Amino acid sequence: GSSWSLISTDFPATNPASDLEISADGNTIVAAIGPYCFLSSDGGANFTKQNGQGGFPSSSIGRIELAIAPSDANYIYAGVVDGGGALVGIYQSTDAGQNWTPIGPGGSNSFQPYSNTKQSQGTYDNALGVALDDPEELFLGGVKLYKWTANGGWNKIASLYDGDPTYYVHADMHFIQMHPTDPNTIYFLNDGGV
Prior knowledge:
Layout: E1 17-22, E2 29-33, E3 36-40, E4 48-49, E5 63-68, E6 76-81, E7 87-93, E8 101-105, E9 127-130, E10 137-141, E11 145-149, E12 153-158, E13 173-178, E14 186-190
């Protein structure tokens, strides 16, 4: 950080950035700015807007959270919620952002990771993280905590306290960080701490 350079002015000036992810090799950069997702495949020299392209949603977006697989930059994930904090969809790209496929579609009564019984909170608590050694093992944090794999689909791995402390993790996930060398260690940051 001893010196800085401006790499792009192509972003909407009135929208705050909510997420920025850079691949391990530094070539792929994906940014969430307001309701827009921007992608660079050349280290930030050029960015293209993803909204409405290749299956990425184009409207009703309140917040976007992003993740790039540490082991394979072709795998990019986006958690998209509407302005009310409800799930629009969890999207996966396996070709470095050229095409997006919903792996967790919104509108389901059985899969509401950003909702509790009273409200939707995806504009407040929205976190994604990809396993260190598996590009198709995704962790999703909202009110609760989920894991997705290509073969196993979605599984709730932690919940609010309901009398059984075995799977209890405090609500409202804000960040998921993989340990840099140990694939068995993951840090979850939420309203209760780390």
